[in-house]
Amino acid sequence: MLIRERIEELERDHLSPYAALSCKSRGRRAYEEQCPVRTVYQRDRDRIIHLCRAFRRLAQKTQVFFAPQEDHLRTRLSHTLEVSQIGRTISKALRLNEELTEAIALGHDVGHTPFGHAGEAALDEVYREYDANAGFTHYEHSLRVVDEIERNGSGLNLTYETREGIAAHSKGMRDLREALSPTGGLTLEAVVVRVSDRIAYLNHDLDDCLRAGVIHQDDVPPECLDALGRRHSERIGRMVTDVIELSLDQPRLGMSDEVAEATETLKDFLNENVYLGPRLQAEREKIRGIIQNLFHLYMSSDEALFAETGFVPSDLRLRARHVCDYVAGMTDRYARSRYLKHFLPAAFPSFEAF
Asked: Which of 29, 267, 303, 333 has the most CB atoms in a 10 Å sphere around its CB?
């Protein structure tokens, strides 16, 4: 018996009846021979880590703070790793498929723009100027990255379950409890990543904001601290434990009213005071200028677009798609360097370091 077959047998014997078994995967868009050692979900995870260049670029993309001088603030990559760790903890406790959970978690943000959600909003706005029927969301683009952009356009050929989890991970600002029950055949592992994403970013964004002095402990709504805890690890532990206790041996995920309400209050607090708060408004406008000026430049200048991508589509709609893909793939640092190159005089020597 192959090692992979032994692992699949262990899954059948020990995982929850609600888990996604590797041997029951719906497969890949393009047929491949099975690996003798790894299951299909292990291979998905490994491809994202080893082959996905967009995954590696997450180390230079914003989570909350733009170009921070503090080295310990989270990036989009450290956020992804925290989502993966929380997701695996929940999946292990619920006897779900940890490898599928990890693959979805590692791939869920590979389509994110430079400068976080401010960059995403700016790219969506400018893209629609050239194609009224188009638009940009990082979760849809994450699927495009793994399907159509990576490996020089051939994609990673991930399983359907991983791909669906990546595309369905985002909840926006909706109530978390609305996203806990799977719909449309979505695996429980995908739902675990949804809730792990919310748990991760609320807690580490709060931690980073406290470290940076953007907010203070006394600013946080007391009902959040009373229900979830006053330390970072305590709050994560409370949320994770609550989800596990309410979801054991169930065909859906659950969360107690007390923890869910405190989580929503914390989300609303951060949204009002940090994500859309006045202290970052000036920086959001600068980011809008960088993203949209670069987009306009590449749409109007064949020379600039060809010099940087080696390709200039003749059709306007296809060109807008090409430019959108290119700008979305930039890191914060690279986007700033392109803006400095094209829009500021080269005579300033201080810009040479970028």
From this structure: 267
